[in-house]
Amino acid sequence: MSAPDNAAAKLHPETRLVHAGILRSQYGETSEALFLTQGHVYDNAAQAEGRFLNTDPGFQYGRLSNPTVAMLEERMAAFEGAKACRATATGMAAVTAAVMAPVRAGDHVVAASALFGSCRYIVEDHLPRYGVETTLVDGTDIEAWRKAVKPNTKVFFLESPSNPTLEVIDIPAVAKIAKEAGAILVVDNVFATPLFQRPLELGADIVVYSATKHIDGQGRCLGGLILGSKKLIEGDIQQFLRQTGPALSPFNAWVMLKSLETLPLRIGKQAENATRVADWLAAHSVPSRVIFCGHKSHPQAEIIARQMSGPSTLIAFEVPGGKEGAYRLLDACRLIRISNNLGDAKSLIVHPATTTHQRFTPEVRAAMGVTDGLIRLSIGLEHPDDLIADLEQALAKV
Fold first, then answer.
1. Which of 29, 35, 53, 202 could be bridged to 67 by S-S, CB 3.0 to 4.6 A?
2. How far apart are CA 392 and CA 386, in angstroms?
3. Is the Cβ–Cβ distance between 321 and 287 less than 8 Å?
4. Contact 227, 206 (CB under 8 A)
């Protein structure tokens, strides 16, 4: 196989998403090859030893590495501007590895309180079982991060924008505090997408993605990605993944490689559509509030202008009538389908209080801004006029 083209790093991001990381076999295929294999054979026993010592380049076993998965990792690292990347079976596997691998019993993790339900479970429920202390803070309150630091603080973790309230956190400010504390900052960048926010350039040490969302973007495959420096990724994180085994399947990696080729086109159009729909919702009489990262009314609009280059594809809005009002709207939608996924080519709508955040008490949901009337809308590739027409008839039933 030919080695990855290192010159790709000098190309524009859109070009890197098409060409970076390609490993061509002796057959010279145009499309990336799909290697459906569990293991690999060695020329001799010494080569096998070298593979396991990492002194001989090559592949060993599907749980540890795979040529197709390696292409996805190389391409995403080139696009993100990271030195290393590791793929996982799901987005939550990526989050779990990124947060758990760097800590030991007796360490301390600080995280923003506005998190996806499963992410908050890892911080609030899972880590303490293993002797890791955790503190949740208001992510938008920079002083709260500083006050939460302890001598044993090792990791900061945040989502920005958050799920589902689109809360945006000042990443450079939090990164500065983390650095002063000797901690690493892990940023879940799913809602912003790698196209519209660059956490590593803003000071983060690790960025994680649920590749299930915008990276696949067409509702087909689960996957996750962890990116950062070679020291962090190839140290504790790689060892954690190697021993616990949340490996991404080669087929899913191949699908996502092909998806990356069109990511700027898809996300750009979805963001354009989201802007049209959000503007229309903001002018409508029914929603009591509309949260969109492309609006000046967003509570963190000034931070968004500094650290995001686009609005993403998500809209949050609140309707009167609480849960009943939200259900009437969702059930009335004909084109937009009810689903807890996001980043898809199809527009999807969900009621977070009874799905993604249902495990929390009403008090915790209220503190996170997840009210009974809050709706999360992921905008797809349909014509925006059709989406607006569907929402118009649905809002009439609230």
1. 35
2. 10
3. no
4. yes
Residue 272: both structure tokens together = 């354009």
The structure tokens listed for 207 are: 């960025």
312 Rama sector, left if φ>0, alpha if ψ -120 to 50, beta otherwise: left
Give the span between the Cα atoms of 78 and 273, in whole angstroms.
28
Scored b (16 or more CB within 10 A) or e, 254-290 reads bbbbebbbebbebbebbbebbbbbbbbbbeeebbeeb
Q: Which residue has the tokens 């360490």?
A: 107
Residue 8 has pLDDT above 70, yes or no: no
Give the tens place of pLDDT for each residue, 46-93: 999 999 998 998 999 999 999 999 999 999 999 999 999 999 999 999
Cα 262 versus chain centre, distance: 18
Give the alpha-carbon dihedral of 174, 178, 183, 188, to 10 degrees: 10
Please give the structure tokens belonging to residue 258: 């092909």
Q: What is the Cα–Cα distance from 168 to 162, expressed in whole angstroms?
A: 7
Amino acid at position 297, single letter: S
Q: What is the model's pTM?
A: 0.95
Is the Cβ–Cβ distance between 203 and 185 less than 8 Å? yes
Whether 393 contacts 286, CB under 8 Å: no
